[in-house]
## 1
Amino acid sequence: MTAGTAARRSDATRAAILAAARRRFAADGYERATIRAIAADADIDPAMVMRYYGSKERLFAAAAEFDLRLPDPAQLSRSGYGRALVRHFLERWEEDGTFVALLRAAVTNDAARDQMRDVFAGQIIPLVAAAAPADRRVAHRAGLVASQMIGLAMTRYVLALPPIARMSRDDVVAWIAPVLQRYLTRPAPPSTADS
Amino acid sequence: MTAGTAARRSDATRAAILAAARRRFAADGYERATIRAIAADADIDPAMVMRYYGSKERLFAAAAEFDLRLPDPAQLSRSGYGRALVRHFLERWEEDGTFVALLRAAVTNDAARDQMRDVFAGQIIPLVAAAAPADRRVAHRAGLVASQMIGLAMTRYVLALPPIARMSRDDVVAWIAPVLQRYLTRPAPPSTADS
DNA sequence: GCCGTTGGCCAACAACTGTTGGCAACAGTA
DNA sequence: TACTGTTGCCAACAGTTGTTGGCCAACGGC
């Protein structure tokens, strides 16, 4: 019972539910992804989902745990941050649907939106802090990076605007990398609220 | 009956429903904005909403009709496109909630997503075609502009990431304008699929 | 005065939602 | 063998949703 790492027969079911949940949340968003649909995908009774995850909210929390696994900036050349970042984002996003699920759900679900803010505060800001010059604009710069990357995810995966959705990875990198590089390293433009 | 422009007594109700619908769709997205809530906001019976707009889908279509009212590029200096565009987007978005409603709904509702694509194809692409050099990359450039602007709308209004949501309009313009300018006018970077 | 039209509300329907409790089949242990 | 805990399914609940039909009051032209 308290066997810690002992493999239970139900572990496979648990995992199947989680995988189905990720797929549904990514494809349909939080409200339209129903427990019944997730259960059907996993070939299991809806009651099982409740038994193993307690509620829809907690199932989502488990399905949307997301680590960007950002590279260590110390490993990168300062002039190559932009390229490396865009390429990493694309690969990480297309590896599984978790990020798109989180993004889609964050638009209508408060818990998902809070989790999105946590990803930003806990993963993007620290990276930018290490990569950007030590001015007082780290949070601004991180926000700008996030705005371009979230816009890319929206237009490429969610809205699927044809020119962006059809672009090759290399083209995306070639166009977007210089923008990230600019947000990360260019001196701040003149501002009405300079400190 | 066929009086065309004659003011009917019900016009005020119709308008109240539409205004409430826009507010609700913008705040809650398509599925969470219920007919009952919209009707309550408009101080009216839910059945009225159905009588005047037929169905929730058609109500949304009426509420989400959106014209960016983009400026005529012929009126702008070529070097000032970026600034003018960012400023225009911010003003237009904050003027009413229609665009945010459309964006929020487009994430989970197919009709809204299609309408978003129409706005892109019918309003963004033509503007970029007039402003950008006559290379074969007009659709690409327009998509990139859209990716940055949609990302800005997402991080500023929907996710409300603190650094972006709190930025002054002038700061947003100062940071984003050069990026749009680049997408519009810079020569295309080297590509794996050059024509 | 009358009467058709319009504007509005109420009550109800059928479908679907997350969620719950009870019951059967099975595994492992003694 | 009997016992105990796990794994699973079925049926049902209570609430909410979009949507509909019928009824009532107020208007406007005659």
## 2
Amino acid sequence: MKEGPDISHIAALIGDPARANILTALMDGRALTASELAEEAGVALSTASGHLSKLSDADLLHPRKQGRHKYFQLADAQVAGVLEALMGLAARRGATRVRTGPKDAQMQVARVCYNHLAGQKGVQMYRSMLGRGLLLETGEDVDLTEQGRVFVSDFGIDIKELQGGRARLCRTCLDWSERRNHLAGSLGRALLSRMEHLAWVRRDPSSRAVLITSVGQTAFESAFPVD
Amino acid sequence: MKEGPDISHIAALIGDPARANILTALMDGRALTASELAEEAGVALSTASGHLSKLSDADLLHPRKQGRHKYFQLADAQVAGVLEALMGLAARRGATRVRTGPKDAQMQVARVCYNHLAGQKGVQMYRSMLGRGLLLETGEDVDLTEQGRVFVSDFGIDIKELQGGRARLCRTCLDWSERRNHLAGSLGRALLSRMEHLAWVRRDPSSRAVLITSVGQTAFESAFPVD
DNA sequence: TTCATAGTTCGACCATAGCCGAAGCATTCG
DNA sequence: CGAATGCTTCGGCTATGGTCGAACTATGAA
């Protein structure tokens, strides 16, 4: 006896029905707010808040505050893997998910966030760059790899000039419709600007929507493919 | 809400410290008795018995009665996989294990159980045959594959003759020192008898120990290799 | 500034379930 | 046939922890 007690500790965290609902709701990698998770779990907000603290303390969740919201995400792929394995054992399906997002279809596809690209296309670009080794994700923040610098230069962007300013080159921003990261920072701004210049995209003057041209459609997909 | 509650149910089972101790003690695939598991978990036998029922009801454990003992084993590799994944997350080590087995070293290596081979060598033979597709394991019981029939015939055993008798051709028997299965049944008996005839082994007349000859040592390893 | 929304903390309540010892079966051994 | 061992069931105790509403803090909007 006196063994490592931690497997039981973690399993006990997952073992509460409310917490299990929270975790399964986050299984697809999105980030949800405390209120949404409370509803998902079927408990009061105060109760959910307690659960979310425990899950975060145990490093199963990764919380971030954005404005007056607090978004929660699974801490990493390993956590998702454990949940996956448990689901395999449980062999049950039918978790209902919250479908959340903006009403306007076009805004959901692509829009401007401050001055960089957001929406499905923004997330796609981020994930593509990450998956192909152009970006390095380190906890909260993100950076360009050497390979990424080459790619960006080839794209027609002068990195040295960007780094001159006070703004951070790369930053992550949580996409509020996709609930995933996309790229912000001066590089994010430069990429959108460059795509406008190449006539890949056109900004709708009356909204934040970004329209993708037919030439841009093809070019974007080949520049930022996702598996 | 109203989601599949089962991931929480299973996780809650693993989440109790006593049950987690029981499960980790079984992680290496051995089978242990209720009493041993009670000690391992650090609880009274009555308490452990309740835990073991719950784990068995949820199909995490596979119980078998043998004589007046009741042996418990992890239900399958998937269960072990989930525990493994949880341990990876918990990143803790140091579970102490019960070291159990007969005192006599030679008996532990190889001995006769009824009329078939038991001990390390018996388990090795069983696992080798299973791993190489000669044996088919189906729940409680076991059977020869077509490939296995060829192998056994080549070994000099007349299968048709064995099948004539009332006894079952293949049966599993739980090895009390290794706590794993080995092969019993008329085939198990025939294999031991054949190995005696080939002078691979010699039975100690004063005990149940089986002595392996030097020629047998080599031959056995090449006939029943394990990775 | 004032109001509304999002989240946290606190206090009180209460049910679940883990725990043990004692008694009851079942199986083997002498 | 007892006697001993291994396990299960039962009853009663206790504590852990999940739950909510209400009060409080922080951020953003009007």
